[in-house]
């Protein structure tokens, strides 16, 4: 857990003031007991990284803003490109809340069923609304995949900032970055499903490649900057950080794909060990 500063608590209060629901209802959306939320706001307990990530998601802000007061602050992870969302006016909390509800439903459906198996009607049914409402936020079905990728990138960034912003040791941070990228059952495995579908569609649809490249560069840059910081701390070798990042991310991709496709003999535990061995052998200074 990270220290809960006065500034962070005040920014969470600002999110609550802007949210249309009561504090108790907001806590329920975050998955946090209302009493625990009150204690965290008073400084009697600390927000966990997972709670900060959910507060940012429900409040339509970033963890970087909650912790540092700005979306633009350089932090432990490279920030995603601030690309425009679907061309819809999201002013007002009701609009933003509805957009987020639809995006979350689309994200889960695509991750679980596959992009080509999800219809606009499926998303509408999951949200209890009409297909016309979905089209208002997502003019075409292709927009669903584009926005779910942006959503995945934002989730990963928020999770990394929440988990790692107090980890000063670059070696520990690199190992925890790897841990946050393992396709464990649940949220991370669903994120991997989205990425695999985006890789496939990007190979077939050139218009997706710019967004894919921008999103992937964020992950590569996060690894590279962590390696550079470790070199400055004297805990990593002096090898080229860009080449090390390229090799490490390629290892993560290849192993992750093998696990998602259930290749015999591949497991999350095995993937973790291979990646830790690579870091120890090729990156850590002995």
TrEMBL record:
Q: Which residues form the HTH cro/C1-type domain?
A: 22-66
**Keywords per UniProt:** DNA-binding, Repressor, Transcription, Transcription regulation
Question: From the UniProt annotation, which stretches of this protein bind DNA?
Answer: 119-138
Q: Which domain of life is it from?
A: Bacteria
Its source organism is Haloactinomyces albus
- Molecular function as annotated in GO: DNA-binding transcription factor activity; transcription cis-regulatory region binding
Start and end residues of each HTH tetR-type domain: 96-156
Cited CDD domains:
HTH_XRE
**What's the protein here called?**
AcrR family transcriptional regulator
């Amino acid at each position: 857990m990270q220290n809960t500063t006065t500034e962070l608590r005040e920014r969470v209060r600002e999110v609550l003031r802007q949210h249309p629901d009561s504090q108790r209802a907001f806590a329920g959306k975050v998955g946090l007991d209302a009493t625990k939320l009150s204690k965290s706001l008073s400084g009697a307990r600390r927000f966990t990284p997972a709670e900060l990530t959910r507060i940012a998601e429900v409040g339509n802000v970033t963890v970087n803003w909650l912790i540092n007061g700005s979306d633009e602050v350089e932090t432990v992870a490279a920030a995603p490109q601030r690309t425009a969302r679907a061309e819809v006016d999201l002013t007002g909390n009701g609009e933003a809340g509805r957009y987020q509800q639809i995006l979350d439903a689309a994200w889960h459906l695509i991750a679980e069923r596959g992009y080509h198996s999800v219809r606009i009607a499926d998303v509408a049914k999951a949200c209890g609304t009409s297909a016309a409402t979905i089209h208002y936020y997502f003019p075409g079905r292709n927009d669903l995949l584009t926005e779910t990728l942006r959503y995945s990138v934002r989730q990963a960034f928020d999770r990394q900032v929440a988990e790692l912003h107090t980890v000063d040791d670059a070696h520990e941070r690199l190992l925890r970055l790897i841990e946050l990228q393992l396709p464990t059952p649940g949220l991370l495995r669903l994120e991997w499903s989205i990425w695999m579908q985006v890789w496939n569609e990007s190979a077939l649809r050139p218009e997706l490649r710019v967004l894919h490249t921008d999103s992937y560069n964020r992950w590569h840059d996060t690894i590279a900057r962590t390696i550079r910081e470790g070199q400055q701390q004297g805990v990593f070798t002096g090898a080229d950080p860009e080449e090390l990042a390229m090799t490490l991310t390629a290892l993560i991709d290849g192993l992750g794909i093998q696990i998602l496709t259930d290749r015999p003999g591949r497991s999350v535990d095995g993937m973790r060990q291979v990646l830790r061995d690579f870091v120890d052998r090729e990156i850590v200074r002995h």
